[in-house]
Amino acid sequence: MSVFVIGGTGFIGHRLVRLLVARGQRVTCMDINPGAHSFADLGDKVAVVRGDVTQFDDVMAAMTKAAPERVINLSYMLGSDHPPHVAMKLNILGMDNCFEAARLLGAKHTMYASSLAVNGKQTHYGDRPVTEADDVHGEYQYAKHKIVNEWQAQDYTEKFGMLITGIRPANVTGPDKVRGSVDHVNVITESARGNAIRFPFKDAMRCPIHVDDVTEVFARVLMADKPQHRIYNTGGVAISLGEIADIVQGYLPDAKIGFDKETGGKAISGNHMIDNTRLVQEFGVQYRPYRERVLQIVNDIRRGNGLPPAG
Ligand SMILES: NC(=O)c1ccc[n+]([C@@H]2O[C@H](COP(=O)([O-])OP(=O)(O)OC[C@H]3O[C@@H](n4cnc5c(N)ncnc54)[C@H](O)[C@@H]3O)[C@@H](O)[C@H]2O)c1
What we know:
The protein is of the alpha/beta class and 311 residues long. The chain has helices at 13-22, 56-66, 84-104, 141-160, 183-192, 211-223, 241-251, 277-283, 290-304, and strands at 2-6, 26-31, 46-50, 70-73, 109-113, 164-169, 171-173, 197-201, 205-206, 208-210, 231-235, 239-240, 257-261.
């Protein structure tokens, strides 16, 4: 089956491309930065195209050539500090270009990444897991754009009968994550590099999920013929930066992790209690224990730095 991945050389994208190929799919990866990851070892199983998702002609030309049954858009501007015009073009117009091209070419299933950011702060919901049916309270540029993306998908679905599915990943973690929420990653990676690191609040809450688990989620849902829902939470592990630091120091006793304050972070933390019953029941996903994932990241970094494995 032909699968078209926009943003396919990114943090999640390059792993998804590789997983899809391992499962027998023919993949076309379109990215504005095609050199960010090499798929040379996969030979002709992956076609890599330089293309800008904000340019409809680029998307149409590459997608027409690939004639995909499945399309997924992972290209995005992570974070909320971007100039409005630039972010709007990539996040909103880019998404529309993807949906419109998929519509014109009759793709059977189109997917995109939303985010837990749509929910905003956990305090909107109290001390309970948030479901996909809850109202959204996202406040900043990134969250607002994801909320609009979910609306764009619904609009295309309702007006044209398209099948479009969104995933709301939690705080994705991995050794090479450098964009988006990174404090929960840096506490692991900087310690593994032997660097001291400091954060404002020990009780700041996050909901990490390893990038391999998120990739598996995207692959399973993308290959489904008819997912039952339009949106799925990935969920993850609700944990404080202080607790992550404790796990890291269990593997690296000399790690120098400091906090300015013990408390004050939880009250301003984003949504971190997440219900992923939909995904688990329909797709049977199971995540490896977070503690194991921390060790995996520690050792990915140590291997890269020529250090012996920890743990
Ligand atoms: N990483 C996370 O923690 C996280 C959490 C929730 C949701 N998400 C969402 O998952 C998706 C993928 O995230 P990621 O972490 O892999 O991001 P990433 O920044 O690593 O990857 C995005 C890719 O899009 C490409 N791109 C940027 N502008 C483009 C353009 N104009 N045309 C074509 N390609 C372009 C980039 O070159 C990059 O390869 C995004 O939608 C992101 O918002 C990520």
